């Protein structure tokens, strides 16, 4: 079932990239060393919440299939990984610059 969620989220790749680019620009424009961790945490949680909504809709549509809920929870855990990686890389780049 995870493969079905992955194919569904591949269709939403443009949305993921749009949020990733918006997060990148937002970090560049509002960089503050004292509140960086807190701000990026809130941004990541907001993006994670928005992208989880689309997966909840997909879960409701496919709820009768086997392992739909387990595939949903696995996908929800995978969603914030690229955003967290971007936050860590940009944080390290600014600290060592």
Essential attributes:
97 residues; mainly alpha; 5 helices; elongated
Give an overview of the whole structure.
This protein has one domain. The chain is elongated and about 50 Å long. The longest helix has 26 residues. Helix 2 packs antiparallel against helix 3 and helix 2 runs parallel beside helix 5. The chain contains 5 helices and no strands. The protein is mostly helical.
- Give the integer mean of the pLDDT values: 87
Which series of helices and strands comes N to C?
Answer: HHHHH
The unreliable regions are none
Count of helical stretches: 5
Percent of residues in beta strands? under 5%
Briefly note the structural class of the backbone: mainly alpha
Radius of gyration of CA atoms, rounded to a whole number: 15 Å
Main sheet characteristics: none
Q: How many beta strands in the DSSP annotation?
A: 0
Shape: elongated
Whole-number tally of structural domains: 1
- Terminal residue distance: 44 Å
Keywords: Membrane, Transmembrane, Transmembrane helix
In short:
This protein is mainly α and 97 residues long. The protein has helices spanning 2-11, 13-29, 36-61, 68-78, 81-95. The model has no long low-confidence stretch (mean pLDDT 87).
